[in-house]
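Translate sequence into structure tokens.
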Amino acid sequence: MTDATPRRYPQGVPSWIEGRFPDPDAAADFYGGLFGWRFEERLPPSAPGSYRIASVDGHDVGAIGSSDDPAAWGTTIAVDDVDVTAARVVDLGGTATAPMDAGPGGAAGRGAECVDPRGATFALWQARDRLGAQYINAPGGWVLSDLRSTDPDAALSFYARLFGWERSSVQEGPSAMLLLPGYGDHLAATSDPQIRERQAGAPAEFADVVAALARVDEGPDDWYVTFGVEDRDDTATRVTTLGGRVLATWEGPATRAADVVDPQGASFRVMQYTA
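Result follows.
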């Protein structure tokens, strides 16, 4: 989706994804080949490492950065005040880094890195100039992030108190949808005025979906990202051609999906809408 109106993310809505890789050049080659992403380096030449914004047709998808840690995709959640929310994370039993400004003079925004009480890492972002992902729910774009947990009820209790999330009755494949009441109204009033008409026939609460929750057999808990594709099987073939692996495929009521791993070991999902 590439709305003319920039998408602004209210408090408690996942707004950005970034992959961190030991070899960001190889990551850019893989994801550029898989999804057609273009990249723009945002760090000055004198700075160590790399942080590249990925885009499709000029619209931001997410980012790829350098890291000495194992390769992984992470999810960032929008907040109105990162200092207040980071303190709340700690009060609820998680951990948070000291919030820091980003960009020249803090123009991009202000963020913090967090770990929830069950070990899942995520980030907080108080947007200024950098609003978040603008190419979503489309082939090559970010669709959703899943919170994967060995105890989903315990995992959700933290985010329910932090952001007001609720579990939906909507299930897609292995995941239950998570809602932020009122998010659909926000979209209808801002970047997606036709959302109600477009989702006619879907459950009324579907417009409020912000994330998903899945049970897994082994921990620690983590956040897992899904990208949209036109054809699951063709994409799975490209994953292997580019050096990755396909772990599993499955079908939901409205989707066909594959869980895959890139050549550096970062796992993610690709999903084709069939409804």
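Note: DSSP finds six helices and 17 strands in the chain.
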